[in-house]
Amino acid sequence: MVFSAVILTVVATGAGSAADASESADPDAKEATQPNVLFMISDDLNCRIGCYGDPDVLTPNLDRLAARGVRFENAYCQFPLCGPSRNSMLCGLYPDSTGILANSQIFRETIPSHQSLPHAFRLGGYFSARIGKLYHYNVPRSVGTNGHDDPASWEMEINPMGCDRSVEEPDIFSLKKGSYGGTLSWYASPRPDGQHTDALLAEEADWVLERCSKRNDRPFFLAVGFYRPHTPYVAPEKYFRHYQLDEMPLAENVDEDLRDVPPASLLSHKKEHELLNDPLRRQAIQAYYASITFMDAQVGKVLDSLERHGLADNTIIVFTSDHGYHLGAKGLWQKRSLFEESARVPLIISTPQGRSQGKVATAPVGLIDLYPTLADLCQVDAPENLQGQSLRPMLDDVTHAGRGYTISQVTRKWGKQKSLFFGYTIRTQQYRLTLWDDAKQGVELYDHRADPAERNNLAYDESAPDSKTQNQEILSTIESLTRLLHDEIARGMPDDGRPAPKPRKWVIDLTNP
410 forms bridges with which residues in the sheet? Predict the structure, then answer.
C-alpha cells in the first residue's frame, strides 16, 4: 500500500502579528505596488541544466523561466553544505555571522533576534508559507516533518511525504547499505509522479496559490523547497529513460588534474566513493540527471499554477539551489569543496514586466544577495546588518558590475583531529583564489577566462623548491585578491567573534521520533 502524508501547520500567533503589521504599514500606499514572491529552491542542484548550456540534461521548465527572467551565470553559495548555506541565504549574512557551520542547526541557536527573509516579509504584511525544505532537513529521514525549521519565518507550513520516503527505501541502491542521505544512492521508481514527495509539493503549491488568488487582500511569499536531486536520487523510471547509461559523461584525466591541488581541497572525499567503478559512476550520473528532470517537471506544474490562478503578472519568481555538486571532477562527488562545481549554483530571477527578460548577468553574485534584493523589490523593511547586495540594478541592466566578487567558505579537519581550520575562496569575474588555513595549508588561483574547468592552479609551480610559483605577475594577483578576501572575511565576522550554537544537535525523524 502506498502511503503519503501531508503535515500542515498554521501558526496561530503569526496570523495575528501579520495582520497587525499589515494594518500599521499604510496599506493604501503599498498594497497596489507590492508584488508577490514565489521562491523555489532545489536541493544539491549544480549547473548541469539546459539553460546553463548543458546539452544533455532536460530542463524545459527552468529553461522557460530563464527565458522570462534574468539568469545569473556566476552565482555562488556562501558555504557548500545544506545547513550553513540555507541559514546564510535566509539570514542575508555570511556563515561567520550566523555561526552555523554544520547541519542540524538553526540560526535561532546563535543569533535568535535576527529576522530571517520570510520573517521580515511576515512583519511587512505578507502571507508567508513554506512547502517542503527551506532550512536544513536530514534527507530523507526528516521528509514529512518541519526539519530544522524556524517557526517565526512562516505563517503556514506544509510537509508532504511521498512514496520515496514512506515506501521505497528498502529498494534503493546505496554504496553504504542502509545509508541514503549522505551517501550516493539511487532508484528508478515504478510509481507515478503523483506519489513522490516533490510532486506532492507542487500539488500543495497549487492549493496555496488558489487560496491566494481568491483572497488577495495582502501579497504572499510562498517558498517551495524541492528535495531532488538530493540523494537518494529517486525518480519515476520514465525519467531515467531520457538518459542512456553508455552516454553518461565521466570525468577525464582525474589523476593529472590533481597534481597541483593542495590536499586540504580534497578533504570532502568520502571513503565509500572508492567503491565506484565506471558502470556505477554512469548509473549515479544517470540517476542524478533523472532526478533533475523530474524536479524540473514539478517546477513546471508550479509555474502553470501561477498562470492558471492569474497571479503571474504580479509575482517575482526566484529559482536557485543551496549549493552545487560534484559528479567526479577532481575525483570528488557531492559537495563541500570550494571548486566551481560545488560552490556555483543556478540562479534565475523573473520580475513582472522585467526589463531584461531572457538576458544573462555575468557579474559574480551570491545567495547572500537574495535577501536584500527581494526586500528592495518588494519595499519590505530589512535589518540594517545584511551583508549582501541588492541585485536590482542587474535585473534592470545585466551589464551592471555590482560588487564584483563573492566569497564562500568551508571547514576542514584532518582525520580524527578535533580542531578545525577554514578554507575561504573569492570569485571575481576573472579569478578564483582559495586560501586554506589562511594560505598555511595551500593556495589555489584559477584564471576562469583561460581555464573555466579549474585545471591549472597558477599558484603552483612543480619546478620550485616549495612548489610555489615565483612568477611576479601571478604573485601580485594573489596578493591583491588576498587583501580583498581578507577585507570581506573581516566584514562578515562580528566584532565579538563568530557566535557559537548551543552544544546540541537534533534530528527530526517522522518514522522513528
Answer: 423
The grid cell for 9 is: 501547520
| Residue 266 DSSP SS3 | helix
Residue-range domain boundaries for the chain: 5-401, 408-491
E-strand spans in 206-364? Answer: 220-225, 233-236, 315-321, 326-327, 333-334, 344-345, 347-350, 359-361
Tell which residue, 99, 272, 267, has the closest CA to residue 182.
272
User: Euclidean distance between the first and final Cα of the chain, in Å?
Assistant: 22
- DSSP symbols for 146-198: --B--GGG-SEEEEEE-HHHHTSGGG-EESSTT--SSS-EEEEESS-GGGSHH
pLDDT in tens, the chain (513 residues): 444 454 454 443 333 333 343 333 444 444 446 999 999 999 999 999 999 999 999 999 999 999 999 999 999 999 999 999 999 999 999 999 999 999 999 999 999 999 999 999 999 999 999 999 999 999 999 999 999 999 999 999 999 999 999 999 999 999 999 999 999 999 999 999 999 999 999 999 999 999 999 988 899 999 999 999 999 999 999 999 999 999 999 999 999 999 999 999 999 999 999 999 999 999 999 999 999 999 999 999 999 999 999 999 999 999 999 999 999 999 999 999 999 999 999 999 999 988 899 999 999 999 999 999 999 999 999 999 999 999 999 999 999 999 999 999 999 999 888 899 999 999 999 999 999 999 999 999 999 999 999 999 999 999 998 899 999 999 999 999 999 999 999 999 999 999 998 765 556 555 564
CA atoms within 13 A on the CB side of 321: 31
- Which residues, 6+ apart, have CB-to-CB distance to 191 below 8 Å? 2, 163, 167, 168, 236
Give the CATH number of domain 5-401.
3.40.720.10
Burial 226-257 (b: 16+ CB within 10 A, else e): bbbbbbbbbbbeebbeebeeeebeebeeeeeb
Find where cell 559512476 sits: 281
DSSP string, 366-420: EGGGHHHHHHHHHT----TT--S---HHHHH-TT--TTSEEEEEEEE--TT----
What residues does 36 pair with on adjacent strands? 315
